[in-house]
Amino acid sequence: MKKIYLSFLSLMVMTGLSAQTAVTFNVSMLPIGASDSLHVVGNFQDPNYDNTPENPDYQNWTPNAASGLMTDIDMDFVYTATLMLQPGRYEFKFVNGNDWPYAETVPQACAVEVNGNANRQIMVGADAVTYNVCYGECADCGQYSVRLRVDMSTVDLDADGIGGEPNDDIHPDGVHVNGSYATWTTFSPMQDWDGNKVWEGLMVLNSAEPLQYKYINGPSWDFPNESINGACGDGAGNRALTIADVSTVLPVYCWNSCDPCSQPVAITFSVDMNASCADVSNGVNLMGTVTDWANGTPMSDADGDGIWTVTLNLSAGSYEYKFRIGAGGWEGIGNRQLAVVADTPQDLPAVCFNSAEPCGSVVPPADVTFQARPGAVQMAAGQVMWVMGDFTQPNWQDGALQMSDSDGDGTWTVTVPQVCIGSMFYKYRVGTPGGTDFTEETADFSAIGGCGVDNGTFSDNRLMVRTDGNPVTVCWTFDTCEACSVGVDENNQVASNIRVYPVPAEEQLNVQFAVNGAERMMLRLTNTLGQVVVEENLGVVSGQKLISLNTSDLASGMYALTLTNGAQTQVVNVVIK
Questions:
Q1: Which residues, 6+ apart, have CB-to-CB distance to 286 below 8 Å?
Q2: What is the pLDDT of residues 62-77, one digit of tens each?
Q3: Cα–Cα distances in Å, from 101 out to 61, 68, 352?
Q4: Which CATH superfamily is domain 366-576 in?
Q5: How far apart are CA 143 and CA 121, in angstroms?
Q6: pTM score, two decimals?
Q7: Pairing label, strands 239-241, 329-330
Q8: What are the pLDDT digits (tens) for 418-430?
Q9: For the domain bounded by 21-142, which CATH number is listed?
Q10: Burial call 39-48: b when 16+ CB within 10 Å, e when fewer
Q11: Can you name the residues that pair with 88 across neighbouring β-strands?
Q12: Pairing mode of beta strands 336-340, 317-325
């Protein structure tokens, strides 16, 4: 018999068809030997048991019916019978004789329990079907069969409190499975045979080698798929399985879990958009494994206080999520983590967009000038530098702002007027105007000098924190944490030759700078929530200045060091260890 690497013995139901379909049953008797009266027996005449025969040429469950007699013409121990059946769902089994005492015992891996009888089942559609199996087993001789089952009753994509509903929560094409056995390219359909929200499939393998797989709520990776974090996983978000027996029945796992489903619990998500100053006219969405990464679930701000919320019913397990403004305004931080405990509803505290903490005070808008030097990056003829971040619309890349170097000094500049975001992520890139090929910063800024924050599996973003309504200028060398000199008239600078050390700081942070003329100056150290943790009134400063700050009592993390003369502000990011 033909060997197959993977097959799912579940075919799409075809309704409203009158033509009959050829269904060929091939059963190998090699483990047992030749048979004189092997039959295939089932509900072939009246599969609905409504006394209206769909296939009048056959009999229901008649072990010695001539129409079910199987033959081995070429004497290869593979017996065959072809029946012409209307599309529908059929149950059957093989009988090695003319009466029920000789019926096979169907393994649980491929058995459907009906009225206490363990039968095989098959879905017949419009296309011809061939069913290959070894007698008394779920697969061809020498193959391995695994019965997969996943409980989708906790999947509530439409957030109506009822999980696992067809089309509303489950993709119209149904649940699929994919894995290493199919080189992660083939999406095999599963079936919910009895409408109990448990989707099943019979996986047939040629070998017992370890494999990884996961369930997908749809027919491609564009749709929600699992991110497993538990004993049944491989540590990379997939399910892991080692086959031990020829026929294996897996427990009924809950979607995205290594355990049976528990009653879903209400989890309320809240995000404070007041400090983001973004255009939220297109709404705010919750994205992630709690819903799906493609479209997400809309949130609402019913009372107009700037805090957007949504409540989902989730089963126990581990999840990842982010917030997104409209269709493309993603947060720049790494994925947020959530652990849902059975029978434990959670009302998560409102976090600030782009932060793991509540929002600090909202600072007044101000002009922000971004400057950058190419450094080691090679800029081809016609290429320019760009800046992109939380302040570019409709999203980072598509809204990137072109910078200019009008005086040819190698410092590229653009000013964003009246930025109202207090804490913002951004990065630079190099490319040709109108082109599609860009070189984007990829440095781990959080590790090489502290001018950015960790972004999980993605490259780090730079972070700038504003503390007041004064204009701000930042200047960095491309893909480094090396600050560059501000390329403006020195008479309009707050300070020049700013040096901050050590990086990262522990007990003490030294700030060295120079002032052209005499200026009354203020120095502040601000955390990522916009809270001022250190403030020094420096009085009137002229020439070189060295300030030492005691940082021993500060929490580890990134801070914004700002120097202001009352009219302008310069910002340097520092890291406290």
A1: 269, 296, 297, 298, 299, 310, 312, 321, 323, 324
A2: 999 999 999 999 999 9
A3: 13, 17, 70
A4: Immunoglobulins (2.60.40.10)
A5: 19
A6: 0.45
A7: unpaired
A8: 888 777 889 999 9
A9: 2.60.40.10
A10: bbbbbbbbbe
A11: 124
A12: antiparallel
